[in-house]
């Protein structure tokens, strides 16, 4: 994606000693960067605060991550905000998160307008409270024509449910006679996932040190490079983002092939 080099330099001006924009090749920025935003609760608990304060602090990290992605020229940013398993949490925390999603989106919509960001959601939105659903729909409507970065937020998202849904959609088409069984291939499945039309992630970042996928993009992450930092999500910032990109750029991606064949 096109990036404004002046804005980019200014954005990364006050570099700490051990990482700067010069440490990454800005002509090789990953096209799709995805985040498992984890550790909000532990961030708060470590400070003697209620877990909810961690979620509120996490919003600031997400805002900075959106801006950093735009400045770097990332094409697609995706982030895991609420899983199909997160409904197991105490009702109070679930309610707070749903309300936080709605109020945050209303507040942050100007940023999407300003930066030409198109919003997308991954997951089953029908199960969300009406307040949240309505605001999400407004966000989709207001940004539908934007052609800058795509920001895909996974809410009530679970990869297994997503793949089962794709299988169901295909089964229905086959049963209706509009699709033949021999037409069911990788592309046909991909087109029926929530991520249809988006490239697979190049880089997956997970915060809080957990070495698992937690039911996130199981299909789409087949050849994604992974980067895990021990930092909790509220402590993630533009410099940590640069560290992840530097690590990504040091990887040799082979996709099952051989180098220098
Ligand atoms: C991630 O932080 C945010 C959501 C899953 C909504 P957590 O709430 O999972 O925080 P920890 O992992 O318990 O610290
Ligand atoms: C993954 O985090 C889901 C999100 C970040 C939204 P969890 O905190 O729910 O994952 P587990 O329970 O540690 O695997
Ligand atoms: Mg967690």
Overview of this protein structure:
With 261 residues, this protein is an alpha/beta fold. The protein has a domain at 28-158 and 201-247: 3-Layer(aba) Sandwich (Undecaprenyl pyrophosphate synthetase), CATH 3.40.1180. The protein has eight helices and six strands; from the N terminus they run H-E-H-H-E-H-E-H-E-H-H-E-E-H. It has helices spanning 5-11, 40-45, 51-72, 91-115, 130-143, 159-176, 186-190, 238-249; strands spanning 32-36, 76-83, 118-122, 150-157, 203-206, 225-228. A six-stranded parallel sheet has the order 3-4-2-1-5-6, with helices on both faces. Helix 5 links the parallel strand 3 (118-122) and strand 4 (150-157). Helix 3 (51-72) runs parallel beside helix 4. The longest helix has 25 residues, at 91-115. The chain starts with a helix and ends in a 12-residue tail after the last helix. One 3-methylbut-3-enyl trihydrogen diphosphate (IPE) is lined by residues 37-42, 82, 86, 97, 208.
Reconstruct the topology from this structure.
Elements: H1 5-11, E1 32-36, H2 40-45, H3 51-72, E2 76-83, H4 91-115, E3 118-122, H5 130-143, E4 150-157, H6 159-176, H7 186-190, E5 203-206, E6 225-228, H8 238-249
Helix pairs in contact: 3-4, 4-5
One 3-methylbut-3-enyl trihydrogen diphosphate binds near residues 42, 97 and 208.
